[in-house]
Amino acid sequence: xxxxxxxxxYRFFEMEMDASILHRTLLEQxxxxxxxxxxxxxxxxxxxxxxxxxxxxxxxLARWSDRDFGHVPPNQFIxxxxxxxxxxxxxxxxxxxxxxxxxxxxxxMFLSFNVSPVQLHDHTFPLKVMSILADSGLSPDRxxxxxxxxxxxxxPRAAKAVLEQLAEARIQIALDDFGTGHSSLGYLRDFPxxxxxxxxxxxxxxxxxxxxxxxxDAILVLAKGxxxxxxxxxxxxxxxxxxxxxxxCQFGQGFLFGAAKAAARIDEMVAEQGSGATxxxxxxxxxx
Length: 288
Ligand code: C2E
Ligand code: MG
Ligand code: MG
Ligand code: MG
Known about the structure:
By secondary structure, this protein is α/β, with parallel strands linked by helices. It contains 12 helices and 10 strands. An 8-stranded mixed beta barrel has the order 1-2-4-5-6-7-8-9, surrounded by 6 helices. The radius of gyration is 21 Å and the shape is globular.
């Protein structure tokens, strides 16, 4: 009897596995065709200078909505694109589109763009970026490439060579999701990093979790000592914005200021900045 039930448990897992492999295979097929049909879009989330509460730039975030699977989050489809060898083509497309959009913003606004670990090990990547910048007319010093600690950890020598070429071209490098990966503080000295992005898992809980608040304070002190700028992600509450500003964090992004939106929908935001308005906009707050 034990044998039989053991076998049925095994069969159960086998079926579960089949289902997930099938799901993954279908998703991969749909992703390939979405790339071919140019259906993956880039949205833009504002990044503010916290002291002045003005928009200083936008982070480009990939968006994909499939007719069968619906909205698939980038945390799900980017790893698939990496695994099945289409990430370089996807990055190329998205970066090209993001640079085209950013080239129309006022000159003091930067474009922040997420780069996959795969690209940090591709010695042709810096040249590709330079050529995309040249085509769009966006100046290299207005581009920030966001990388993660994990991507440095895998092959530090290859990553260093790529990052140094990018830095020589005056492109900035930001360390994303800081504090969540293989946080080797040495990375901040060894690589040409000009910004760290404090992961939203800390920002979201800094008010009710003393440890999150302590980690943020430590990152701010460390970055200041090293001459590295700080960006906090996941700002949802006015009190969190106030605390971070007071603690000397330079930049912030989060739903308090706005989620990522299609290029056509940020035009107004970009225009309001020219008029001297500060965020979050008063007109968005309940009146009376
Ligand atoms: P990330 O680079 O750390 O991006 C920030 C994520 O936090 C975004 O999720 C954004 O929508 C979300 N977010 C922003 N403000 C708030 C907030 O106030 N509260 C909360 N709860 N979340 C907030 P998204 O767009 O789902 O992207 C997830 C991750 O996928 C990104 O994390 C990035 O690692 C990756 N990703 C997105 N687009 C690309 C891309 O074009 N290329 C690559 N390689 N990775 C991408
Ligand atoms: Mg990012
Ligand atoms: Mg992040
Ligand atoms: Mg993240």
